Amino acid sequence: MTKNTIDKDGVITEEVRYFILSFKGDVQTFSQVVRGHWSVESLHWLLDVVYREDKNQTLDKRAAFNLNAIRKVCLHLLQNMTFPKEKLSYRRKQRYISVHLEDYLPQLFGKRG
Q1: pLDDT category, 112, cuts 50, 70, 90?
Q2: DSSP of 8-36, one letter per residue?
Q3: How far is CA 27 from CA 5, 51, 82, in A?
Q4: Torsion of CA 59, 75, 45, 50, to 10 degrees
Q5: Model-level pTM?
Q6: Average confidence (pLDDT) over 19-24
């Protein structure tokens, strides 16, 4: 069982999740496994929202693997780049880079100042 307390706009809700499994480890190991699983799910959700990965119909497995790797690298770059506005969606970040490409090329390739 895990408990999650959420405070959204002053409204506090508590979620309780129950798990049925044959896990013989301790609580800390189990919590690490659960957090690891949800971090992977969060990444897959981001890839689907930003790049519509679930609609990808690439038939060649190597090409699909390569496209997935490229998307993950691009997502990592978007997460770590600096923008004039702090809160921009990933799609707006992509659009902003496409318009101001020459300004962002040094950041993309690791050259500073």
Answers
A1: low
A2: ETTEEEEEEE-------S-HHHHHHHHHH
A3: 19, 36, 38
A4: -80
A5: 0.64
A6: 82
